[in-house]
Write a structure and sequence with these properties.
The protein contains three helices and six strands; from the N terminus they run H-H-E-E-H-E-E-E-E. It is α+β, with helices and mostly antiparallel strands.
Length: about 130
């Protein structure tokens, strides 16, 4: 599945890995790394949001209606629950709404102990083919 992450250069640069990808759910992960942290060795919220946006965007893409060319994130809401100080963050994205103009995806992030780290709900616009 690494070829899916390779299709998203920013995700690949961050080290995001995609383990599974279907229209029903996308699973990905990101390892804690010192160069992705803020003060105190805490994994930066932007890195977590990038993980969620990447797997959520892929989930939206896999749910595109016929004739669409892609998606674009137009809204993203993140609730953070706990810091990540080590290990791997797992992401699970599932569609909440699949329509002709918008796809809404919820992505749950958890740490290595399976404790919730964050929950992200994003709205992806369906892009028409030109």
């Amino acid at each position: 599945m690494s070829n899916l992450a390779a299709a998203m250069p920013f995700a690949e640069r961050l080290g995001i890995e995609v383990e599974t990808a279907t229209a029903e759910e996308v699973r990905g992960s990101l390892d804690w790394a010192a160069d992705l942290c803020t003060a105190g060795g805490v994994l930066h919220g932007g890195a977590l949001m990038a993980l969620a946006d990447s797997v959520g965007g892929l989930c939206a893409y896999l749910n595109l209606p016929e004739g669409a060319s892609g998606t674009a994130t137009i809204e993203s809401k993140t609730n953070f629950f706990r810091p990540v100080l080590e290990g791997r963050v797992e992401a699970l994205a599932r569609p909440l709404h699949v329509g002709r103009r918008f796809v809404v995806v919820q992505t749950d992030l958890s740490d290595a102990a399976q404790k919730p780290v964050a929950q992200v709900t994003q709205t992806q616009a369906v892009l028409a083919q030109c």
